[in-house]
Amino acid sequence: MKRSLYSPPALSLRFIPVWRRNFLVWRKLALSSILGDLADPLIMLFGLGYGLGAVLGEVGGTSYFAYLAGGFVASSTMYAATFESLFSAFSRMHVQRTWEAIVNAPVTLDDVLAAEWAWAASKALAAGLCMLAVISALGYARMPHALAAIPAVVLLGLLFGALGLAINALASGYDFFSYYLTLVLTPMMMLSGVFFPVAQLPGPVQVAAMALPLFHGVQLVRPLLAGSLPHAALLHLAVLVGYAAAGIYLATVLTRRRLLV
Questions:
Q1: Got the DSSP string for 236-261?
Q2: What DSSP state is assigned to residue 176?
Q3: Which of 36, 67, 76, 178 would be a feasible disulfide site paired with 59, CB 3.0-4.6 Å?
Q4: Closest CA relative to residue 45, chosen from 135, 180, 128
Q5: pLDDT in tens, 66-125
Q6: Distance (Å, whole) CA 187 – CA 82
Q7: Side-chain half-sphere CA neighbours of 84 within 13 A
Q8: Which pTM does this prediction carry?
Q9: Which is it for strands 58-59 and 62-63: parallel, antiparallel or unpaired?
């Protein structure tokens, strides 16, 4: 039976071999990929954490380095999922036409998209775990609460992977992604409490910031690294799940429209 363009994603276990294919390709470049994901956030974390931290002192009741650490775990996860679901997925979809080759097997476009979604989340998890490992080694992550941040990292990876795939379906070329990165992700990172408490922003801006998905990720990760439970954790989780579900549905519809219609 032919599915409607607007039907929910048809998920099946057939996405696993496609995910494995992406993993086997990535494994050849794993070290450089991980270093690329970590270099920028770690440079900013050490530069701002120790540099500005010496001037600012405590922020939010903790050292500025520890404050930044929670924000950068969430933001590095966001960027890892985003770059995989934008540049790498676009290469496989449009430039290399890997997706076109795969769907000649008994695999549907929805399966391929689900594999890309899961792979983006896997790359985000790897980046988040590496950041957690560095922060733990420096003594800024309190166990066992910090381990509870791992599910939040996975959820952030799924969320931003889904949003990235939706943008990927609209892209005409790599330059198109600059609009999303510059006009959406950069302001989101500035307003979501990564660098400073959202409470210091003007009232209307605070309201806008609280609607951003990264804000809710930071609100989950930062308290867990500090050894405490997040306030309103169920609300933050619900917002992230809602964004992820809406994102993968939108990505599915837009990808079907681009490749099947």
A1: HHHHHHHHHHHHHHHHHHHHHHHHH-
A2: G
A3: 67
A4: 135
A5: 888 888 999 999 999 999 999 999 999 999 999 999 998 888 999 999 999 999 999 999
A6: 15
A7: 34
A8: 0.91
A9: antiparallel
